[in-house]
Amino acid sequence: MIITLLAFFLCVFNIILGVTVFFRKKGLLSIFFFLFTVSVSVWASSIYLSEYTLSHSMALIWMKITFISSSLMPLLLYYFARLFPDYKEITNFEKMLIIIPIIISFLTLNNDIVTGIEQIKPITPSFGSFYNVFFTYFLSFILISFFILFRKLISFSGIRKAQTQYVFVGLLVALLLGMLTNLFLPSLGYQQYGKLGPFSIVFFVALTTYAIIKHHLMDIRLIIVKSITYSLLFITITLVYTFFIFILGAFVFQGFTGIEAYWASMIVALVIAFTIQPIKRVFTRWTDRIFFKDNYNFEELTSKLNEVATSTIVLPELLFKFLNSLMEKMRITRGALILIEKGKIYETESIGYKQAINLLPKEIKHLVNDNKTEVFDEIEEGDFSKDIMRSYNTSLILHLKTEGEIIGFLFLGEKKSGDIYSFQDIRVLEIITDQVALGIQNAKAYEKTQKFNLVLRAEIDRATKELRDVNDRLVQADKSKDEFISLASHEIRTPIAALEGYLSMLNLQKVDIKARDEIAKRSYESVERLSTLVKDLLDVSRIDQKRIKLNKQPTRLERLIQRAMEGFELQTRDKKIYIKFQKPEKMLPEANIDPERVGEVFNNLISNAIKYTYKGGITISLEEKDNMAQITVSDTGMGIPKNAISHLFQKFYQAETASSVLSNERGGTGLGLYISKNIVEMHGGKIWVESTEGKGTAFYFTLPLI
Amino acid sequence: MPKASSKRKRILIVEDDVALRNVYEMRLKLDGYDVIVAGDGEEGLSIAVKEKPDLVMLDLMMPKISGMDVLDILKSTPETKKISVIILTALTQESVKTKGFVFGADDFMVKSESKLEEIVGKVKSLLK
Known about the structure:
The complex is a heterodimer of chains A (706) and B (128). With 706 residues, chain A is α+β, with helices and mostly antiparallel strands. Chain A has helices spanning 2-24, 28-51, 56-83, 92-96, 99-109, 131-155, 158-187, 200-215, 220-252, 258-291, 298-311, 315-330, 361-370, 384-391, 423-505, 513-544, 557-566, 569-575, 595-611, 642-645, 672-682; strands spanning 114-119, 124-127, 335-341, 344-351, 374-375, 396-402, 405-412, 553-555, 578-582, 591-593, 617-625, 628-635, 687-692, 696-704. In chain A, the strands form 4 sheets. Chain A has a 5-stranded antiparallel sheet with strand order 4-3-7-6-5, with helices on both faces. Chain B is globular and about 35 Å long. Chain B has 128 residues and is α/β, with parallel strands linked by helices. In chain B, helix 2 runs parallel beside helix 3.
């Protein structure tokens, strides 16, 4: 009795499994799977029901049902094997094969396979001549189906291989056992094992279930829950019905017949009709409590997340709020949102992760290319996605998409309950991520506008500052130009005033011949100074306007220095100081310079040195350093005060002299060093000075050699 | 006009430009003055204190100590207070002129606007 009930429950469960698959996954495969479970269930049921018949004729009818249902099984299995796991069509020829079970059914009905029942306990049928035809058909189709599945098992890889594996093993065990108990043993005369046959379904159900759980073939929990609910409902109602009939029969309509029986049936039918809904609800609540402890309400979840998506436009806030609500509602341990842009991370937000999720560019690239929801348990070993998920301790990766473009990922750790993500969970998450992606996109656009605003402001500030600086420089330049003009006019005016004074003296009576000579000499000096000054001013103006052109040619510096020195011989002799040239030990290569301009530099430096030297003398040396010629003009003069050195190369600068009266030379223009510095620098050289007050000064400068 | 009597008048020229200094010196010597020269304010001040000339021709823009400071010191020191000072400058601003007179300058001349003979005339009239 218990075995029968168990088998009955199994049959119902089997059918409901088939039905659920049929409704959840549309397609030929599901139809065949469903029909297969139906035929298996009918076959199993008929075997058990036939146990309880008392008449030979009833036993024969059950036996016929057994054969008709089992005649469908091989063909349906064949179709299933052909289509599994994801093929869509079978050929017309294969469709035509349906004729075989039809013929067998006719033969069965015509008593050509089972001719009669020899004995009821246990049922012992006598087989007709066509039994062998049925046997051959049954065996060959099952073998073909297995062969097909086996071929697929070998050629497939990855998840399809795993799926095929479980289905293959499940069917193999189930059908081998079934064939053993219901085909081979009966044909050998052992009928009593027939009722064990249906239990072979257990293997099929168990292994298919395992395949489903392990590989998300479908949402197994929902299916199991529904199956259990409906099985319990079915059995309860059956028991209630039987109980009522029994009560009514025993106490109300004792030994009821005819009309009374109809009344009883009607009452029971009414009771069933009114109780079915409440009972179903009770069962649903029970099963839900057991299986969906941490279930969430889809409507509630989406409306909550929608609310979050529209509550703020500030990106970091949005990311955090979304993650937080999602994890709270779905009871998830860890979660992270990673926004990407142009293959790089744009922004991340994570809750519960111990380490930061800094996706590498190649990881981003891989995930973008994969472009599908990644479920850790479903990915086979060796896949890069699996490595990524393992390294970030992540169970699920969803893509955030707007207008087909991936803008980021949602990383999720496992659920707090430790359950796997169901098919439904993933569907829900996919819908949610689509919604939030839109919100994120908006927030991002807003953020970018704001950032752009900041950039713009910074740019404006920078431009304003630049304008102000340029203006300051212009004002400064204008000021220094004014200063230059005023200084220049002062410098010019002084020798003119002197000249004027001398010339006016010529008219005086008291001026004698000797005085006239003096006047002429002094006048000449003033004129000379004036002309030097004008020449220097022109040079400065050319330098400032960058109009000086160098006429470079290979020049022997030794010769140039000697020629410059010759011009000062008279002055040094008058002043009783020496001037000497320390020639380099080895002759230097020629220099690539403008000899006239560089000559000016020598003149300036030497005349300066003479001007401030009263004893000792001037030494000029030349040497090669780092492929450059380095010239030194050193003197034993009064030196330059430290505070003056930094101003030395400025326009119109003249160091204060220790005693102006002693320096009874022609006054400098204050432009010589400025001009010299510019000429040297135009040649790509450098000029600098070292000086010790009271001891002397040395000017150094470098020039390029060929 | 050289004076035959007693001692010759002494004039100190404080001027940093050699050419100008030479012109003034030569011209004043022609008139028989005893001329001393200084090239900057510091030198000028020390000579003025030591030699106590009758008149100082004072430039303003000079290294070390400016002419205005020299004037201030000379006019506020009892021993040198009586020395006549003619400011002889390139600066044309009215404010400089005012300041010069406030500090006690006896005359004020702008170099570029004054002929040599005018300057000599001023010196002569101040030394009478």
